[in-house]
């Protein structure tokens, strides 16, 4: 999340002091929803009868067309405020009341929250950042809980069966003087069911902040575990604050203060609400990223072959390494053909995430089917290009298709913008396995259809043919040509009688490439005769 200053809140009032406009900032500051506020007298709504007289004087000045500034007793500490007239056809139609949140140190705390919370899209780290900002500066203890079913990607309505709250504790932090064993009593990743009577369940059910004392914690813990914890009653002032993002309640944060520290006041509650609102957006971003990443990972895992068909006369080793930051669109397949021949297809759909994985899935299935029909490699790519044209906007892919006869080691190969294969020869050298150039799939148009040339080639006895995706050869540190040269050296240096060991050796020598992008590697070698 980008840093955002804590700005004043504006409420639209009628000249008589009734609420005519109420935004999200006002809802967080005063703890009242727009439905509760609009039409109500502001002082009645806030339970501040002492504010009626000074507010009336301020509204009167605004009704006369003059701007009013001063302090209004709308909180325990008072709030700096201004009243600005808003003219209509018949004079002053409404008054814009702008108040500055009375948070002691709140601006600095929220500024720090803007810098620290949401530094990554890791859900647990984001939750830890929330409590790290709050403890011990704002509270003596803090924790973040998220609805368990949201972590399981269940989009049912927010209410749980029977009004209970089923949540997972993602992060917790205690002040330094609390017993160290408390972290064992409140472990991270514990799934908890809170009954409807608890303040936690009420916070979720109402979407509103709930203030309570340490006795409620003891009662809840005793109900769940049958035990009491010495010192827990020292936490005398607690807030359960809903985490709401994009109109959805994700869970809640809990903040507590101990004896000897001022209990939470209305200004602190408003600060907690603002902090929770900022944290909720970051947590929701992390949750959505986690969901998309797990969906793409599951989708791709179901589409990549767990094993490949190896015909007599060949050895094949294959590896797939996903990127750390997102699932890409790399794929490969080995399709058995008549006469013990095989078609080998390797490709890379542009992008990451569900879209790339879905495109990869469609292209892989289509390529498997086309190759299985024994179309020649060039025609396989031409038909794949037509399919790629119908995929989502901005989706294109590179692909290479090779048909090999193990009996003769002769091949036919066609390429659609894919990195060229490499041959590691028995004499300790390596060279390119020459393939004709062709446009990537999906980038042409009907007026200029691509032509995928097809060339004959052969795998020399004792040589190893390497097919791969660009994640193994391209990086920010070097260009593709340099990366291919490094791969050639690694392939020669890793030559072993065991092809699986050769594959492992190549990846070990190029370990600095791993994690940045998906990597697919396929090695083919004639079997010893």
In short:
This protein is an alpha+beta fold and 529 residues long. It has helices at residues 24-30, 34-37, 42-46, 52-63, 106-116, 123-134, 148-151, 182-185, 199-206, 214-225, 266-303, 354-372, 377-389, 480-493, 499-509; strands spanning 9-13, 19-21, 68-72, 79-88, 91-99, 141-147, 165-174, 191-194, 210-212, 235-245, 248-258, 314-321, 328-336, 342-352, 397-405, 410-416, 422-424, 430-432, 455-458, 464-468, 519-526.
Detailed description of the structure:
There is one protein chain. This protein is an alpha+beta fold and 529 residues long. Helix content is 33%, strand content 27%. It contains 15 helices and 21 strands. The chain has helices spanning 24-30, 34-37, 42-46, 52-63, 106-116, 123-134, 148-151, 182-185, 199-206, 214-225, 266-303, 354-372, 377-389, 480-493, 499-509, and strands spanning 9-13, 19-21, 68-72, 79-88, 91-99, 141-147, 165-174, 191-194, 210-212, 235-245, 248-258, 314-321, 328-336, 342-352, 397-405, 410-416, 422-424, 430-432, 455-458, 464-468, 519-526. The strands form four sheets. A six-stranded antiparallel beta sheet has the order 8-7-6-11-10-9. A five-stranded antiparallel beta sheet has the order 2-1-5-4-3. A hairpin with a 5-residue loop joins β13 and β14. α11 (266-303) runs parallel beside α12 (354-372), α12 packs antiparallel against α13 (377-389) and α14 (480-493) packs across α15 (499-509).
